[in-house]
Amino acid sequence: MKSSKRDKTEGKFHQMKGKIKQVAGEISDNPKLEAEGTGERVAGVVQETVGQVKKVWGK
Questions:
Q1: Cβ-proximal residues to 28 (8 Å cutoff; 6+ apart), any chain
Q2: Could you tell me the residue range of the domain that residue 10 belongs to?
Q3: Residue 30: which region, alpha, beta or left (left: phi > 0; alpha: psi -120 to 50)?
Q4: Which of the residues 1, 9, 21, 38 has the least number of beta carbons within 10 Å of its own beta carbon?
Q5: H helices of the chain, where?
Q6: Which three-class secondary structure state does DSSP give residue 2?
Q7: pLDDT tens across 16-49, in order?
């Protein structure tokens, strides 16, 4: 699998996992879990963007 495609796929996975953690933190009234989920979701967005940039630049 090309590096760009792997980054985009892993980015989507981290976004989904982060959203689940975020919602679980909201439901269970656990701000630490909610913040962890938000951070992971944002990291996933960044990783997906890196994959898109790599695709444009052909890496």
A1: none
A2: 3-57
A3: beta
A4: 1
A5: 3-27, 31-57
A6: coil
A7: 999 999 999 999 999 999 999 999 999 999 999 9
